[in-house]
Amino acid sequence: xxxxPVGLQWFVVGLCAVISVWTTVMNVxxxxxxFYVKRNVSWVPLVGGFFGVLALLETPIAGAHRxxxxxxxxxxxxxxxxxxxxxxxxxxxxxxxTLLSGYEFFEHTADIGIRAHAETLKDLFxxxxxxxxxxxxxxxxxxxxxxxxxxxxxENAQDLLFSWMRELLFxxxxxxxxxxxxxxxxxxxxxxxxxxxxxxxxxxxxxxxREVKAITRHLLRVEQRDGVWHAEVIVDV
Length: 237
Prior knowledge:
By secondary structure, this protein is an alpha+beta fold. The protein is built from seven helices and eight strands, in the order αααααββαβαβββββ. About 45% of the residues lie in helices and about 25% in strands. The N and C termini lie far apart (about 70 Å).
């Protein structure tokens, strides 16, 4: 920075470094939420890398400018995020997620059925959980305030899904607990360990959906066809 006092130069460089580090740490947390907690939050693009580059180029430390490119690599919102986004669209992954993950409700005599499909077993369990929340609380706003842990074992994926849905309904029926995020520490066709974060249903601000009395085994199925997991559950209302 020509004609700038050294003290002021250090202040500007320090400010840029703080912004870069703060943004980079925040982006790391956001990427963790997106890929492991499955809570979709947009990262801050380029800011951490840009201010890091600026700090290294303008610092009075001799030779530091040679490492100007490092912040662009470290900050997930810079080069890693841009490369991942490009790969995401170039490989058609955005279309596959739309096609391979979702649920629908269907009428079954006096009950309601949930039919879901997903690319992985973990996503299938997550989609089924979201369908149940939609059924009992419609579009109520949720927040990760309280924590619940679930640990289940079963003989097969079908029985495990039944136990998973029954446990979620139990939490809502007894504690009025509405999950907002799901972190699966383990999920196989016979074992599940998950941490749920959410809050209690508030009748004054939330929307009461259908009253689900029980999860039934009638027509219960979980299967994988052509690389896609499918599930169907009938709930008693």
